[in-house]
Design a protein that fits this description.
Layout: H1 2-11, H2 16-31, H3 37-47, H4 54-67, H5 70-82, H6 88-104, H7 107-124, H8 129-140, H9 150-159, H10 163-169, H11 171-192, H12 202-227, H13 233-251, H14 256-270, H15 276-294, H16 300-333, H17 336-347, H18 351-366, H19 371-388, H20 393-407, H21 415-424, H22 428-435, H23 439-451, H24 453-463
Helix pairs in contact: 1-2, 2-16, 3-16, 4-15, 4-16, 5-6, 5-12, 6-7, 6-8, 6-11, 6-14, 7-8, 7-21, 8-21, 8-22, 9-19, 9-20, 10-24, 11-23, 12-13, 12-14, 14-15, 16-19, 17-19, 18-19, 18-20, 19-20, 20-23, 21-22
Length: 464
């Protein structure tokens, strides 16, 4: 009966969060045995979670970066690094998304932020609108895979899995996806005989490589000073930040300080300096320091607007989580999850077969449900089966999130489709067709991530 009520609400065009909460309330009223107030109680307890505090702060950090001109700096840095290659702006698109993924944590923020700049620039350089939209949509899926990631926070809370381990698990898969996308750009460039989009400049290239070197060397030098030389940790970190800002002022770096955001987050979590939730707050503080004090591109009027936008987005996400928590609880209480698990395990006890079926299911669900709602519904159903078959929950989390990110590129509910159709001025149908060739590198990445778990679990096992 619960499933019938849910399908009735959904077929009537009711938003998914209201459909889940409404179906649960209708079932309780018609079945009896429980007071209707249970719905409110379970919804409130569903969002009464410390890890979920990271959600508004990661959203705020991404919005601050978008509005403080950080996206322009990232674009210029990527342009200097790879813009001279054949199909240069396509490579810039992918590399820019890799960097911005370390700040926003969502695919939609990437598509709306960097996507606006990238599509405009690619059209001005003679690229077809369809190609610009396709590569932007594909690269936007990197946002929730490369840490930080809002879907990982939601999955970690639902599956009782370390969010820090999930963040680390996303690094190598994100790198694989970026490489496959850049190879796809190179294929189109070779087929269409495209050249570079800027003149090769050894000065700009070496400066960009120098910025990458600073980003990679900075945490390594701090670690060596603290662990090998016995320097006081707090004093060493303070001196390291002072040196970083001094170098930025002397050499006028384009993007060293913004690129440091994921380094600070991952470094702080792996060393135990802060939890993922506290890391989200640290990312906000870092974004405010850059926007207000260093680059001075953020005004108080803009800050208030960013905060209001963050409140609106956060309330939407948390309402979905709250509604999904009561729906998931009802699925478990009514025995639906146990029935599904028994049916799947009777059908197959092979992990690879289950992963294949789960991928097909999640790709289908991702076409109709927003990722947060899909995660909160699917975790109670699929994770117990995966655990029984010996599949690591961290690995399964990566597989689930990537499936749902690919679903964002599909009609009828793909939010990235709607965002990019508006940004590029394309019809929904043309936007859908533009994205189709880019499903190949995404699905190739999905196959590797699904059936080569060591790629996902190597870093988490090293640090956790």
């Amino acid at each position: 009966m619960l499933k019938v009520f849910f399908l009735l609400f959904m077929s009537g065009g009711v938003p998914v969060a209201i459909a889940m909460a409404g179906a649960s309330l209708a079932y309780i009223v018609f079945a009896g045995g429980l007071p209707p107030f249970v719905v409110i109680h379970r919804m409130v307890s569903g969002i009464d979670s410390f890890p979920l505090l990271a959600v508004p702060f990661f959203i705020l950090a991404g919005n601050l970066m978008n509005n403080a001109g950080i996206t322009t700096r990232i674009y210029n840095f990527a342009l200097a690094l790879v813009g001279w290659m054949k199909g240069g702006l396509g490579h810039v698109n992918v590399l820019g998304s890799v960097i911005f993924a370390g700040m926003s944590g969502t695919a939609i923020a990437d598509a709306a932020g960097l996507g606006t700049i990238e599509i405009k620039a690619m059209k001005e350089h003679g690229y077809s609108t369809e190609f610009a939209v396709g590569v932007t949509a594909a690269s936007a899926t990197l946002g929730p895979i490369i840490p930080p990631s809002l879907p990982f926070v939601i999955y970690g809370m639902m599956a009782n899995v370390s969010v820090g381990a999930l963040f680390l698990a996303g690094i190598l898969p994100g790198a694989l996806m970026a490489v496959l996308m850049m190879l796809t750009v190179a294929y189109f460039a070779h087929r269409n005989k495209w050249g570079g989009d800027i003149a090769f400049s050894s000065t700009k290239l070496f400066k960009a490589l120098g910025e990458l070197g600073v980003v990679m060397a900075w945490p390594l030098l701090l670690w060596l000073a603290i662990t090998k030389l016995g320097a006081p940790a707090q004093l060493t970190v303070f001196a390291g930040f002072a040196a970083l800002f001094l170098l930025d002022r002397i050499f006028r770096f384009e993007a060293v300080l913004p690129i440091m955001t994921p380094v600070l987050l991952i470094g702080g979590m792996t060393t135990g300096l802060f939890t993922p939730t506290e890391g989200a707050i640290a990312a906000c503080v870092w974004a405010m320091v850059l926007g207000f004090a260093w680059y001075r591109t953020l005004s108080w009027r803009m800050f208030v607007k960013v905060c209001l936008d963050t409140v609106e987005t956060t309330s939407t996400v948390l309402f979905i989580v709250a509604a999904a928590s009561i729906f998931g609880w009802m699925l478990t209480a009514t025995g639906v999850t146990a029935e599904i698990a028994a049916w799947v395990l009777a059908f197959t006890k092979e992990a690879w077969v289950f992963l294949l079926l789960a991928n097909l299911l999640m790709l289908f669900v991702g076409c109709f449900l927003e990722p947060t709602a899909a995660i909160t519904i699917l975790v109670p159903i699929l994770l117990p089966i995966a655990t029984q078959l010996g599949i690591d929950p961290v690995h399964f989390g990566l597989v689930m999130v990537l499936n749902l990110m690919i679903g964002l590129l599909h009609p009828p509910m793909g939010m990235v489709l709607f965002v990019l159709a508006r940004v590029a001025g394309l019809s929904f149908e043309r936007t859908t067709m533009a994205i189709l060739p880019w499903l190949l590198p995404l699905l190739g990445s999905l196959v590797v991530i699904t059936y080569v778990p060591s790629l996902v679990l190597w870093l988490p096992k090293m640090f956790f």
